[in-house]
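Query structure, 174 tokens:
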């Protein structure tokens, strides 16, 4: 066995949390998960609406942090047609930023483009503008594990001082 083969056996895989609109973008999550199944230790697929049965916003936010995002180092937001208006996506981004996790937005082919712009969740937009979050296309990110690894590495190098997490939390879905 060569040194590179031995190193591959002990390579640390990125642990990522994937945030997306379950009702609209499940097929993209499924594809993402299948493409990167072997490259990442954990890619979460937890529909919070089913997993956490509570109307208490603070309880839900705590569960998001402790049960879903804790232990990951990067949140990847799959942005489709209705992602911008989903409260749990906003709360997941909020929790990720509170924990100083890397943040990557991925534009799905279903995301409507108007005037050359895509409507993204407000909190994600704030952090793309501040320079903290990366903004990538679906085609680019899913071109291979090396590309996604490079994106995650670049996102982890962003200065925490660029985090913009002052927006009020979304209280309901659009």
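Result returned for the query:
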């Amino acid at each position: 066995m060569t040194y590179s083969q031995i190193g591959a056996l002990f390579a640390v895989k990125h642990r990522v949390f994937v945030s997306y609109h379950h009702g609209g973008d499940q097929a993209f999550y499924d594809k993402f998960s299948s493409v990167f199944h072997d490259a990442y230790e954990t890619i979460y697929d937890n529909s919070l609406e089913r997993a956490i049965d509570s109307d208490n916003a603070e309880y839900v936010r705590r569960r998001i942090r402790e049960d879903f995002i804790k232990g990951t180092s990067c949140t990847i937001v799959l942005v489709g047609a209705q992602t911008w208006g989903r409260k749990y996506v906003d709360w997941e981004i909020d929790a990720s930023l509170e924990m100083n996790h890397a943040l990557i937005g991925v534009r799905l082919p279903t995301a409507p483009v108007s005037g050359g712009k895509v409507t993204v969740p407000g909190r994600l937009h704030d952090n793309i503008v501040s320079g903290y979050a990366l903004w990538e296309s679906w085609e680019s990110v899913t071109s291979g594990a090396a590309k996604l690894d490079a994106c995650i590495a670049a996102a982890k190098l962003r200065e925490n001082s660029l985090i913009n997490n002052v927006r009020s939390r979304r209280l309901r879905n659009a």
